[in-house]
Design a protein that fits this description.
Blueprint: H1 2-18, H2 23-27, H3 43-84, H4 101-182, H5 193-267, H6 272-280, E1 311-318, E2 325-332, E3 337-341, E4 354-357, E5 361-363, E6 374-380, H7 393-401, E7 410-415, H8 418-429, E8 434-438, H9 447-454, H10 460-467, H11 479-489, E9 510-511, E10 517-518, H12 537-542, E11 562-564
Parallel strand pairs: 5-8
Antiparallel strand pairs: 1-2, 1-7, 2-3, 3-4, 5-6, 6-7, 8-11, 9-10
Helix pairs in contact: 1-5, 3-4, 3-5, 4-5
């Protein structure tokens, strides 16, 4: 009864150990025996555990081998990066040889190589120390698995054989007892249940001794496996501590190298290189050199009298169509031109907008000092060659068609003061072909002056107040009058000379040296009657619109007339 209990207990121990196994470990058991899964021996569990340890160590080896490869690759790339810095500089003497930017670049190259060496050292340490240590640890795990197989594996195989033999003998005992009960005469000495029972008892003792030996071996193997597993963890911890120590050393060293580069770069004064460069370079511009002034530039014919303006300043010119004045900057040149510019700044106005060639023009008399407006007029020649730009579309049409070759145009100019006007007038007078001056003002009173005023003429003072012009000669011609003259010239078979008015006793007008008509004194006929003469040009111009000009008598001649000088 006790033997039966011992057999069942041993069997239960084997089955209890088999419950914690796995399908993988059972299929990969190093004990090659064709048994059922529930008959797995306890030694296979230890073999399975340390097989898993071997896989773990293998993964850790691969991990550190990857770290070593990374560090070696970083070392190679940092070495290439250090080769990018080419020192000494090949740019001649552009930079300082010592104490400047070149020394910093030397430090960058050398410290980059030092950083590469640090990475390379760590890679060699990991590959030659940690990886090799883990590989030896893996070999020890394999040896431990082999020891388990050799020690407990053989005992487990022997226990299995003894159990199998015990079961056979117990089965034979039952068979022999059955034969004895059924056919007692057929029992032999070998099949005697007593002999069979003795064999079973001896086999069970042998089985128990074998199982006890297996149990003792398992206890020793378990204890040694626990100690071995602890040594595995300690070995892995040691390997990681070694890696961490070398990694910390490398990080500190690299941090110091980068810190040195940062301090060296920050210690360089920003202007040291430039000061040294400027001190040894002879072709740089001296900061004390003054800027050039275009006015101080000398060139041939700069001071030639023909390029120095005679007079410059502001004037107002009456617009042709709007009949308003516009102020502009005018330049009177020795060549005889009066140029109009939009601005006095040559950079803004490089070309004149309007020009008059004074040698081909006639300068009218200036206005009186007591006039409200300080004006004078300039009239071009009758052939229109006095101006280079008139802005008249009608003049352009007449030029293309060959019409309108009569009297020239006149331009009115106004100054800000009488003195300014006289300065302009005197300078222009020196360049014009001819100029007109107003005759001396005469006090006109009496019946003759009254008759003149009754005829529609006004005195010179009244003309100044009405027209705001102080000259005895009309400074400008109205655009409407000019249009009338041009339309009159367009009539075929009509003379292109000055307009004439019908009167009794027609006669040809006589012109003076400057092209103006000369008035003759009236003559009496035989009967004593006064023969009227042709009105003067000034009388024609000052005649009211719609009324015939009045020819002055002997006493009125010369009043307000223009003298040609």
């Amino acid at each position: 009864m006790n033997d039966t209990v011992s057999i069942s207990r041993a069997t239960s121990l084997s089955r209890a150990g088999s419950r914690h196994g796995s399908t993988v470990s059972r299929s990969q058991s190093l004990i090659k025996k064709n048994i059922q899964p529930h008959d797995l021996r306890p030694s296979d569990i230890l073999i399975e555990r340390f097989t898993a340890w071997k896989a773990i160590v293998k993964q850790l080896i691969a991990y550190f081998e990857g770290i070593a490869d990374i560090e070696n690759n970083v070392a190679r790339e940092m070495t290439k990066l250090g080769a990018v810095i080419q020192v000494p500089f090949r740019s001649g003497n552009q930079f300082l040889g010592e104490g400047g930017l070149q020394d910093i670049f030397y430090g960058i190259r050398d410290k980059t190589r030092a950083i590469a060496d640090q990475h390379a050292n760590l890679g060699r340490t990991v590959d030659g120390s940690i990886v090799q240590h883990l590989q030896k640890l893996r070999v020890e795990i394999k040896a431990h698995i082999k020891n388990i197989q050799n020690d407990t594996g053989k005992l487990a195989t022997a226990v299995a054989k003894e159990r199998e033999l015990s079961g056979k003998l117990i089965g034979d005992l039952g068979t022999y007892i059955s034969i004895l009960k059924n056919t007692p005469l057929s029992v032999t000495a070998k099949t005697d249940p007593y002999v069979a029972n003795q064999a079973v008892a001896r086999q069970l003792v042998k089985q128990v001794h074998t199982e006890n030996a297996l149990q003792k071996s398992l206890l020793l193997t378990q204890a040694s496996s626990a100690m071995f597993e602890a040594s595995l963890i300690q070995a892995i911890q040691s390997a990681w501590a070694t890696f961490s120590e070398w990694r910390t050393r490398m990080d500190n060293s690299i941090r110091d190298l980068w810190g040195t580069l940062e301090r060296d770069m920050a210690a360089l004064p920003p202007d040291r290189e430039w000061i040294s460069f400027a001190a040894r370079e002879d072709h740089l511009v001296d900061p004390e050199t003054p800027l050039r002034n275009p006015e101080h530039i000398t060139y041939p014919s700069k001071d030639d009298p023909s390029v120095i303006p005679v007079h410059t300043g502001l004037l107002e010119r009456k617009k042709r169509y709007t009949r308003t004045y516009r102020e502009a900057f005018y330049v009177l040149t020795p060549a005889g031109f009066l140029h109009e510019y939009a601005s006095s700044d040559p950079a803004l106005a490089d070309r004149p907008q309007f020009s008059l060639f004074l040698p081909l023009c006639t300068l009218g008399p200036p206005s009186a000092p007591n006039a409200k407006s300080h004006k004078f007029h300039i009239e071009e020649r009758k052939d229109g060659t006095g101006s280079t730009h008139t802005g008249s579309l009608r003049g352009l049409r007449n030029t293309l068609t060959g019409k309108g070759g009569g009297s020239g145009r006149a331009w009115a100019f106004r100054a800000r003061s009488h003195d300014d006007m006289m300065e302009w007038w005197n300078d222009i007078r020196m360049l014009c072909a001819r100029y007109l001056v107003a005759s001396e003002q005469m006090e006109r009173s009496g019946p003759v002056a009254a008759a003149v005023r009754a005829a529609g003429y006004t005195s010179e003072d009244e003309g100044i107040d009405d027209t705001e012009e102080g000259s005895s000669v009309e400074e400008e011609q109205d655009e409407e009058d000019e249009a009338v003259y041009e339309e009159a010239r367009d009539v075929p078979d009509e003379e292109t000379g000055p307009p004439e008015y019908s009167h009794t006793g027609p006669r040809e007008a006589e012109y003076g040296a400057h092209g103006y008509p000369v008035d003759k004194k009236p003559t009496n006929n035989q009967d004593g009657a006064t023969v009227s003469r042709r009105p003067s040009k000034r009388q024609q111009e000052k005649a009211p619109e719609g009324r015939a000009p009045h020819a002055a008598a002997d006493g009125e001649e010369g009043a307000g007339g223009a003298e040609a000088l």
